[in-house]
């Protein structure tokens, strides 16, 4: 059991660091109407819904730290906002079914708004000027929609990974 947990943790870190590298290096080239998907955020949302609050918080911390190390934003912004998203997922988890794609699709847009909106709020606290109307219309709203499309592709893969890492015996 302990070996399986270590392998699961290594796989999780590899996925999140790899997704961070993809997101940060390919984002200038993979844009739709000027925005790119938040791949790490989508992974954290999907995994938190599938595996629950504890693993969601771990993925949020690893994903947030990875983004903090790879971005030019002040260190800690992505970790804090990602942890906030994981906490919201934890409040919802257990009250709904986690293996259906409906819940991740339903939550991706508001959680994307929360993640990016709070990150922008922290930037304003640090003295950066943000035009909130423009930010919502040209960044927050389109990224939220793009993240929904990304979740359509990512969640089935996360579901398969979850079943591979945690096989459930068949019951008759």
Main traits of this protein?
Arp2/3 complex 21 kDa subunit ARPC3; 172 residues; 76% helix; 0% strand; single chain; mainly alpha
What does this protein structure show overall?
The chain has 172 residues and is mainly α. The protein has one domain: Arp2/3 complex 21 kDa subunit ARPC3, CATH 1.10.1760.20. The chain is 76% helix and 0% strand. The chain has helices at residues 2-26, 39-51, 53-70, 77-92, 102-125, 132-165. α2 (39-51) runs antiparallel to α3, α4 runs antiparallel to α5 and α5 packs across α6 (132-165).
Short description:
By secondary structure, the chain is mostly helical. The protein is built from 6 helices and no strands.
Gap between N and C termini: 25 Å
Give the class from helix and strand content and strand pairing: mainly alpha
Provide the domain count. Answer: 1
Mean pLDDT, all residues: 90
CATH class: Mainly Alpha
What's the overall geometry?
globular
Extended strand count: 0
Summarize the main sheet: none
Secondary-structure element series: HHHHHH
The percentage helix is: over 70%
Could you tell me the CATH topology label.
Arp2/3 complex 21 kDa subunit ARPC3
Rg measurement, Å: 16 Å
Which CATH architecture?
Answer: Orthogonal Bundle
